[in-house]
Amino acid sequence: MESIDLDLNQKLPARLDAFRRLHRHTLDHREQFWAAQAKRLQWQTAFSCVVKEDFSKPMASWFCGGQINAAQNALHRIIKTGKEEAPALVFYQKSGETDTLTFNELKDNVLKLAAAFHQTGLVPGDRIALNLPNCPEFIVSALAAAYLGITYLPIGCHLPPSTVAEDVIASKAKLVIMANSSAYEEKKDHVLNVRALLDDRTILISDEKREGLPTFEEYMAKADPSGLEPACPQADHPLFAVYENRLADKHVGSVFPTGGFLVQAHASFDDIFNKALVQDIPQMIVNTLDMCSASTQAYGLWGPLSNGTGIILIDEEDIRVNTIERILNEQPNPALLCRPNLISDLREELGQEQLNTARRFPVIACCGNALPPRLVTYADARLVNGPERVVNLWVQNKSGTALLHSYPTPELNRPGALGFGALGVAPLIMSDFGEPCKTNISGNLVFARSWPAMPTATMGTTEHFKKTYFSKFPGCFFTYDGVRSDKDGFFWFMGRLDDSIKVKGQSLGASLIEGVLTAHPLVDEAVIISGQGNSGEDIVVFMVPRKTIQDEQTCINQIKDYIAEKIGRFAVPEKIIITDQLPKTPTGKLFRSVLRRVAAGEATLDERK
């Protein structure tokens, strides 16, 4: 195996031609590159080979034979570098108070909770569920689980109690950690409703006391971390799992390996937030993403902590300008991790005024949707020093980390672009016939080789995983995204190639919502169309009722309540249009183009002929 000369401690090249040479170098010497990245972390047992992969099965296993503890790499390893008193976790509460934990204090909390897990019988290989918002208890719980080799399952606070309970049961989690009811979209008695569906599971409450349920403090009260040994998980041991779809009694999702995910999250965060910048390097990162996505785990937890960067969390459903101003004034050079809707919300509140501070974010990283150029321009004028400081991250729950992204330097960023393939990762653009697309020709985004953070399928869904992602382009992983690349190698998003709609950062299949709607006694037919909102997609429903509707608004309210109950309030449509018939071709196919024009306000259903 040919050796390569690559200093991973050096800054990344700022010039486009030099960067493209480096990227090619990491692809030509992929195994050596990822082995070098892995050796930057602390391994309990060295890996014997870098990767074994076969997309015909499909199978990919990284850092075979190695043993690594993620929590030790995020805490103990960083403390040894002299950062024991540096802020690791800062929490801005609704009350206006701020809680801060240093790396030493975070480690002490993690070990005490890990001791409580151990004391109550949890062992490596067990699973716990975290139905928590952005709060310190989530970070502490995830780290404590990883310290013992326990797999954790983040469950979104936007989901209704029935779905939370189903996720817990499907994952076989032995413990559920929740917050008080105000943390959830389904606020009323959420915790009690989940508890009623899970009477055989232990439930912890992270903050206020609930009758019959122990709090975090009570659970840890008698725990003694002295003598507690860290687990030695194999590199492919599950670190965490994320459910994405819940169809036909199958919980479809992704299970992320400890070694591969930690290596790639560490490397990716370092490249984007540290090595791309010569100065003005962030010391903290503000995470505003929901905890239930892989992107949050990569860039709001494991990536920053394993690089010695502190995390800032905000206890607000709607983040306000004054909170942003406080953080910029009080914290040491914080970067911002967000979805485009946050920039749009800040623009709506702030208007043409400037922030009441001279400080700016050194980097704003957006994921969920590509940040449109108009919002980049606004962020440049109000939030960062230069449009290149706003970077896009292309992350799916099936990718784990950003496989495409831009960098916060002028030549390696363009407003609206997805950026380049990550170092050591080779994206391809294929036509529907399996041929490589030429420059500026739109096609299917695929990957012919695996990457370290690549997940496996959740229990019982291996065939679904294979059919969904590996059947259309044999030997390649299919992302269902349409992209093109320009002459300089920048990738540009051209649209989804399936029925997926992204709402508030959550991916929803239109067929899922349509199936729920047609089960309602008032609905005969229903079609979902995505409409363009201020910062992303909105859901628009066209509905044909089973019988004549006397009061349309009452009917609409009933349908919205039904969707909130069955899927979650985040999936409630922005608009429901009731019609006696849907526009169709003579062969019975829907005129979706007409519906999209109606949803956009460019036509009416009466104009369909």
UniProtKB/TrEMBL annotation:
Keywords: Acetylation, ATP-binding, Ligase, Nucleotide-binding. GO terms for molecular function: acetate-CoA ligase activity; ATP binding. Residues 20-74 form the Acetyl-coenzyme A synthetase N-terminal domain. Residues 83-243 form the AMP-dependent synthetase/ligase domain. Its EC number is 6.2.1.1. Pfam families: ACAS_N, AMP-binding, AMP-binding_C. GO terms for biological process: acetyl-CoA biosynthetic process. Transmembrane segments: none annotated. It is an enzyme of class 6 (ligase). Residues 513-589 form the AMP-binding enzyme C-terminal domain. The keyword ATP-binding applies. It comes from the Bacteria. Belongs to the ATP-dependent AMP-binding enzyme family. This is acetate--CoA ligase.
